[in-house]
Amino acid sequence: MERIGKALWSVLEKALKFIVCRILHIGVQEKTWEKFIQFVKFTLVGFSNVIVSYGVYLVLFLLFQAVGILGNADYLIAQWIGYVLSIFWAFYWNRKYVFADGRDIVPWYTALAKSFIAYSFTGLFLNSLLSVFWVRVVGVPKIIVPVINLIINVPVNFVMNKFWAFER
Predict the structure, then answer these.
(1) CB neighbours of residue 122 within 10 Å
(2) Separation between Cα atoms, residue 121 and residue 127, nearest integer Å
(3) What is d(CA 91, CA 68) in angstroms, rounded to the nearest whole number?
């Protein structure tokens, strides 16, 4: 599985380099290219993370609605559970492929704890505040609130993970 993952990242990077350098004729310094690729990887992991988080949210939200439990907190509980599960997903892929550079800067358990703190800040605290605002103040339907919150959460998560969770 690890070889397949590395091979896929390699193919993606070569395809992007071909497009940027050969087709678009943009000269990019190696250090800039590495940062760009890291951001692309983070974006792809983030996209898959959104699918995991929103998928769990949607299933649980609809289940809670169908069963009629949790009242007005149904969307918040579903969001919290989806987000916690997606943290493990994102941590694995970020540690393995995005912020990995052949050396373990931070022990896995320290990086996981920091990732939980970073994602808890944006995913549980900030996301919950924004969700309550969108639903109760603005009147946005509960079913699309998590998608709207991504605009704020993704950049904050990238900065916290890059400069804190996977660094000493």
Answers:
(1) 19
(2) 8
(3) 33
> For 141, left (φ over 0), alpha (ψ -120 to 50), or beta?
beta
Question: Angle, to 10 degrees, between the axis of helix 2-17 and the axis of helix 30-67?
Answer: 120
Separation CA 92–CA 28 (nearest Å): 29
Q: Position of tokens 């896929």?
A: 8
Residue entry with tokens 């559970």: 81
Q: Which two tokens stand for residue 108?
A: 């896995």
40, with CB counted inside 10 A (0-12, 13-18, 19+), is middle
- pLDDT, one tens digit for every residue, the chain (168 residues): 667 777 888 888 888 888 888 888 888 788 888 888 888 888 888 888 889 988 999 999 999 989 888 878 888 889 889 988 888 898 888 888 787 766 566 778 888 888 788 777 776 788 888 989 999 999 999 888 878 887 887 778 778 777 777 766
Residue-range domain boundaries for the chain: 2-165
